[in-house]
Every structure is written in structure tokens, then in C-alpha cells.
Amino acid sequence: MKRLSAFNVTSLTLGFAFLYLPMILLVIYSFNESRLVTVWAGFSTKWYGELLRDEAFLDAAYVTLQVAVVSSTIATVLGTMAAYVLVNAGRFFGRTLFSGMIYAPLVMPEVITGLSLLLLFIGIGLDRGVLTIVLAHTTFSMCYVSVVVSSRLVSFDRSLEEAALDLGCNRLDAFRLVTLPIIAPAVISGWLLAFTLSLDDLVIASFVSGPSSTTLPIKIWSSVRLGVTPEINALSTLMIAIVTVGVITASLISKRGAARAQADAQAADRATG
Amino acid sequence: MRRFVLIAVPYAWLLALFLVPFLIVFKISLSDIALSIPPYTPTLKDGVAALIQGLDFENFWFLTTDDLYYKAYASSLKIALISTALTLLVGYPIAYGMARAPSEWRATLMMLVILPFWTSFLIRVYAWMGILSNEGLLNQLLIAMGLIDAPLTILNTNTAVYIGIVYTYLPFMILPIYATLERMDDSLIEAAEDLGCSRLSAFWLVTVPLSRSGIIAGSFLVFIPALGEFVIPSLLGGSGTLMIGKVLFEEFFNNRDWPVASAVAVILLLILIIPIVLFQRNQQKQAEAGA
């Protein structure tokens, strides 16, 4: 087994301290009794109570979740289709443009995406609200989904799908019964990625949201600009906790899935060997 | 027929909600302010001649008359370049350490790098406000250690912006570099050392060139979004921090000058086309090498 050199241990320790300390401090100070965020005045959970009584935050959280669930679901369908097209469809008219439009939103500055979508919505007379945020989020997150899914599709053995077609499946059934179960982990992580991107988006949402559709990041943004407050620390802590639990659960599930797949493969080996 | 539907649906979506909006931005950047109050005239309904007649480069000309814009582009470029270099400097040793770690640790280390990426970007920037302010934890610590007497002003300066960009974009740098380093064959280093290279020169002559594609991908992933960054300079930067994303946002929401905001966006896009195309090429090359 390789051993890490002192240099590697130091760089990993410092690196992870840099990544995690700011968030850990934020969590610690969310339990601070004092309104002054920088002075420690004893342990207290009162800011969580104040936060949960704040209707504006709860409304914003509800809008954000609604938008995230709907947009990441549509984005997953569209993104998977796009990935399938990119990997399997071969040549078609405007293929370069198509793949360009898949990759460009990944790196496009958010201010430009937000501005351009707002001008489109105003141009076609669509009122700003939940619908416009959903459309905007679906558009950029479908591109992330299709990148995640296409990396899985590239390594997928197409002969399996062809075998299903030879055995009498139609294309849709072959996709549903053979391809989809195999690429499912990538589709699920694509959905999760789209979901978090939607929860996280501030810039694009501030362009395309209306007065009745304030999302959580917009709400946080407007309070944070006035300075650091204990309520925001409490809210941040809750969001960090939810994400941590979610990511750890997801990785445990996928680990168990991998272990089961391996056990199945071994059992199959024994049975055939 | 099915193949057609499969291609047409995502294609149409992207055309309608990605490409067409850009064309609108481009068109409005050429309109006059009075004409550009919604609904914008001239529109297609008035015929192509009227559409073209009303357009001119006045807004772009306006951008050259006020040196605010020129300075904002230049300082965005500078901030994005410096912070990309800093991110590389911080991220490379971490990626290197991960790739050298025992293989049973790697999955965990990888998850530790990805986890902050799942956490809200806004919250990660916000976390630094409490650390960097004059009464903040960093100053308290430095004073307690006796290193400084009076608090340093870090929040609301460019230094805070650099810290913010390095912090939030670090996973984008670490992951592609780690991916290339992990694929590397260790026996190459051993061969170089057997042939008389020192550890350091083996690193420079073998490891760094082999991780080039990761370094390039990571740098683009940091540089491109950093150039148009809006949240970090607004929260951590000061009034002296000029970044084009912030200027565009203010031009649009505070001054309500949509044609000028659109012109600012068009020029930002023109600046970004070269790195975006280079990035896409690099990705394609990597995908081909991986397949």
C-alpha cells in the first residue's frame, strides 16, 4: 500500500480545512445567543425559532422547492433525450449547433443567460412568475443532465439494445427495458444535480422572477446585503444539514446498489461456471 | 419518425430558450433607448427593412465614451486571471494529494471535494462575510495571536473577491486535475527517477505535462464563470471593485438602460467566445481520448 508523504498529508489537511472551516464556523455561530454575529454569547437555538416563524422565508422556500421539483424533472427528460441524440443519433442537420447549445449554457455567465431570457419573456408577453423561473431553470439544467447522462451512454454497450430489438422489442420498449435501467444511476444523479442547481440559482431567478415569486436565494440575497444576521446563519445551517444528509444517503444507496450488482455478478459467475 | 421527435424536442427547446434570447439581446443592443421600451420597435411585423433601419451601433459607441466600461472589462479580466492562477495554485496540491492517496480513501476524498459544490453557492460566499469583516473571526484571531494590533480591512476589497472566487470555484479546479492525475501510470515517475531525475524534476517533466488537459479544463471552468461573476464582487468586493457582471446587473436594474445593458452583454460574450470554444475543443479531445 502506498503511504502519503508529509507534503501530501499537509496539502490535503490544509485544503480540506480551507474548504470546510468557513461552513463549520457558520454552523457554530448560528447557535450564538447574541445578535452580534461576531461575539460569542452562549449557546442558543432562538434564531431557528425566529426563522421558522418568518412567513416570508417559508413562502420563498415553498416556491423554491416547487420550481426545483418541476424544472429538474422536465430537465431530466429533455436532457436524457438530448444525451441520447448526441451519443446515438449520428449525423443530422445542425448537429454542431445542437452540441454547441448543450455545452454553451454550462459556461455562460449567468447575467447574460438571465438578461436574455428576461428579454425573451417580455418580448413574447409572458408574465414573470413561477412559470418563467421553471422555463429558465429547465433550460440550463437540461444541459448539465445531458452531459452527465451522455458520459454514461458512451460506455453503454449498444449491442444490448440491438439484441432487444432483434428479440422483438420496439424502440421504446428496448429503451425502457434495457437502456434506461442501465443508465439509471446517471439519470438520477442528473436529476439531483438539476435539483440543486435550481435551489441554488440566484442570478437567473432575479432576472426572470416576478414580485409574487420570490425564491429562497433571492430572499437570502436581499437580507444578506444588509449584513450578516443570525437568522441567515440558522437558515444556512439548515440548508447545509439537508444537503449533507441527502448526499450521504444517496452515496450509501449507490454503494449498496454497486455491492448488490457485484454480488449478483458473482452469483451469476458461479451459476454459469 | 421517432428519431425525428427525439431530436426535435430538445433541439426546439434550446433554440427557443437559448439561441433566440441571444438574438433578442443582440437586436436590443442595436436599438435606441426610446424604441426599446417594450414592446420593442421596430419588430419583425414592420418588415425587415424597418427592422434594420432603426438599428445602429450607438450603444456600442456609447460604451467607448465612458471609461467605466473599459475599466470594468479590464478589471474583470485581471480579477478572473489572477483568481484562476490562485485557484490552480491551491487546487493542484490537493488534487495531487488525492491521486497519491491509498485507493480505498479516494472515493471519500472525492466526495469531500464534491460536497461543498452541492451546498448553496450564495451561502458559501456569505460564510466569508462573517470571517473577513473588521470585527470578523480572522481579525479576532490575528489580534489574539498578537500578529496585528488593529484589524485589517479585507472585506469590501479585491482581496476578499479573490478569496471568494478561489473558495467557491476550487472543486471545479480540483476535479478535472484529479481525474487526469488518477489515470496516470505511476511507473512513469519511477522510470524518470531511475533515469536520474530528482523528485522535483520528475514532477515538472512528467507529472505536470501529463496533467495538462486537466489543468486546462480546470482553468477554463474557473476563468469563464469568474469573468462574469456577480454575486462575489457584490457581497465581498467594495465600491472600488469593478466587475462587468456587476456593471451589467446595475445597468439593467438600477439605470433601466436595457440597450446599453444588452451591448455590455454582447461584448462580454464576444470576449468569452474564444475561451468557450477552446474549452469545448479541449472537452471533445478529452472525450475522444477517454472513449
TrEMBL record, chain A:
<dbReference type="InterPro" id="IPR051789">
    <property type="entry name" value="Bact_Polyamine_Transport"/>
</dbReference>
<dbReference type="Pfam" id="PF00528">
    <property type="entry name" value="BPD_transp_1"/>
</dbReference>
<keyword id="KW-0813">Transport</keyword>
<dbReference type="GO" id="GO:0055085">
    <property type="term" value="P:transmembrane transport"/>
</dbReference>
<feature type="transmembrane region" description="Helical">
    <location>
        <begin position="60"/>
        <end position="89"/>
    </location>
</feature>
<protein>
    <submittedName>
        <fullName>ABC transporter permease subunit</fullName>
    </submittedName>
</protein>
<feature type="transmembrane region" description="Helical">
    <location>
        <begin position="12"/>
        <end position="31"/>
    </location>
</feature>
<comment type="similarity">
    <text>Belongs to the binding-protein-dependent transport system permease family. CysTW subfamily.</text>
</comment>
<feature type="transmembrane region" description="Helical">
    <location>
        <begin position="174"/>
        <end position="194"/>
    </location>
</feature>
<keyword id="KW-0472">Membrane</keyword>
<keyword id="KW-1003">Cell membrane</keyword>
<dbReference type="InterPro" id="IPR000515">
    <property type="entry name" value="MetI-like"/>
</dbReference>
<keyword id="KW-0812">Transmembrane</keyword>
<feature type="transmembrane region" description="Helical">
    <location>
        <begin position="130"/>
        <end position="154"/>
    </location>
</feature>
<feature type="transmembrane region" description="Helical">
    <location>
        <begin position="232"/>
        <end position="253"/>
    </location>
</feature>
<dbReference type="GO" id="GO:0005886">
    <property type="term" value="C:plasma membrane"/>
</dbReference>
<feature type="domain" description="ABC transmembrane type-1">
    <location>
        <begin position="61"/>
        <end position="253"/>
    </location>
</feature>
<feature type="transmembrane region" description="Helical">
    <location>
        <begin position="101"/>
        <end position="124"/>
    </location>
</feature>
<keyword id="KW-1133">Transmembrane helix</keyword>
<dbReference type="InterPro" id="IPR035906">
    <property type="entry name" value="MetI-like_sf"/>
</dbReference>
TrEMBL record, chain B:
<feature type="transmembrane region" description="Helical">
    <location>
        <begin position="161"/>
        <end position="181"/>
    </location>
</feature>
<dbReference type="Pfam" id="PF00528">
    <property type="entry name" value="BPD_transp_1"/>
</dbReference>
<keyword id="KW-0472">Membrane</keyword>
<dbReference type="GO" id="GO:0005886">
    <property type="term" value="C:plasma membrane"/>
</dbReference>
<dbReference type="InterPro" id="IPR000515">
    <property type="entry name" value="MetI-like"/>
</dbReference>
<keyword id="KW-0812">Transmembrane</keyword>
<feature type="transmembrane region" description="Helical">
    <location>
        <begin position="105"/>
        <end position="125"/>
    </location>
</feature>
<keyword id="KW-1133">Transmembrane helix</keyword>
<dbReference type="InterPro" id="IPR035906">
    <property type="entry name" value="MetI-like_sf"/>
</dbReference>
<feature type="transmembrane region" description="Helical">
    <location>
        <begin position="261"/>
        <end position="279"/>
    </location>
</feature>
<dbReference type="GO" id="GO:0055085">
    <property type="term" value="P:transmembrane transport"/>
</dbReference>
<keyword id="KW-1003">Cell membrane</keyword>
<feature type="transmembrane region" description="Helical">
    <location>
        <begin position="6"/>
        <end position="26"/>
    </location>
</feature>
<feature type="transmembrane region" description="Helical">
    <location>
        <begin position="79"/>
        <end position="99"/>
    </location>
</feature>
<comment type="similarity">
    <text>Belongs to the binding-protein-dependent transport system permease family. CysTW subfamily.</text>
</comment>
<keyword id="KW-0813">Transport</keyword>
<feature type="domain" description="ABC transmembrane type-1">
    <location>
        <begin position="73"/>
        <end position="279"/>
    </location>
</feature>
<protein>
    <submittedName>
        <fullName>ABC transporter permease subunit</fullName>
    </submittedName>
</protein>
